[in-house]
């Protein structure tokens, strides 16, 4: 993994999570956690996230300095925007957002 992603990079991992407990030579209980990955997807790096956050902060400062936010507040949405928003809202409402307990095959007790 270290060939493809650096520390701080976001990754998505699908697979199994297991834990086991054993007693070491000193008599201490040790818990071991293991992830068996079936699929790993690289998301965005820390540098990309920081660059995007910096761009948003710069844009926010610009909007606040120029008073554009007041113009945005005073404007009324167009009919097209209202229709698009209504379609997107209906699409989201139709999608199932319930999570089944069986979706996650493990629980983490720390």
The oligomeric state of the chains shown is: single chain
N/C terminus separation = 26 Å
Shape: elongated
The number of E-state strands comes to 2
What's the helical proportion of residues? 40-55%
**β-sheet strand percentage:** 15-25%
Search tags:
single chain; 110 residues; 2 strands
Topology:
Blueprint: E1 11-23, E2 29-42, H1 46-66, H2 68-74, H3 79-94
Antiparallel strand pairs: 1-2
How would you portray this structure in words?
By secondary structure, the protein is α+β, with helices and mostly antiparallel strands. It folds into 2 domains: 1-43, no CATH class; 46-92, no CATH class. 40% of the residues lie in helices and 25% in strands. It contains 3 helices and 2 strands. A two-stranded antiparallel ribbon has the order 1-2. Strand 1 and strand 2 (29-42) form a beta hairpin. Residues 96-102 have low confidence and may be disordered.
Summarize the structure.
With 110 residues, this protein is an alpha+beta fold. 40% of the residues lie in helices and 25% in strands.
